[in-house]
Amino acid sequence: QVQLVESGGGLAQPGGSLRLTCVGSGSTAGIWAMAWYRQAPGKQRELVAELRIDKSSNYADSVRGRFTISTNKARNTWYLQMNSLKPEDTAVYYCNCNTKPPQIYWGQGTQVTVSS
Description:
By secondary structure, this protein is mainly β. It has strands at residues 2-7, 10-12, 18-26, 31-39, 46-52, 57-59, 67-72, 77-82, 91-99, 103-106, 110-114. Strands 2, 4, 5, 6, 9, 10 and 11 form a seven-stranded mixed beta sheet that branches. The chain has a four-stranded antiparallel beta sheet with strand order 1-3-8-7, with no helix packed on it.
């Protein structure tokens, strides 16, 4: 069992930056993929960024070049650095991980609002 807690959301102006943090606890040894998703009101949840333990990564086209996912694996912690924020980035952001044996875990979500 893995528990995930994310933090760092808040209000930013267009062009500003925020950094989200996800801290895992429990049976974290089997984590092989760490990710961030987001869900805007009335929209489906979408993958924002993913990082695997082999260091490969994947980003949504809408955030590539602006957002960066990174991890401190020893601390079971990963981050989403969000730069050049746009109003369309407004959403609830969820951290996520996949484990082996196969399981999927989610954090509780943190609100990011980008507006002037």
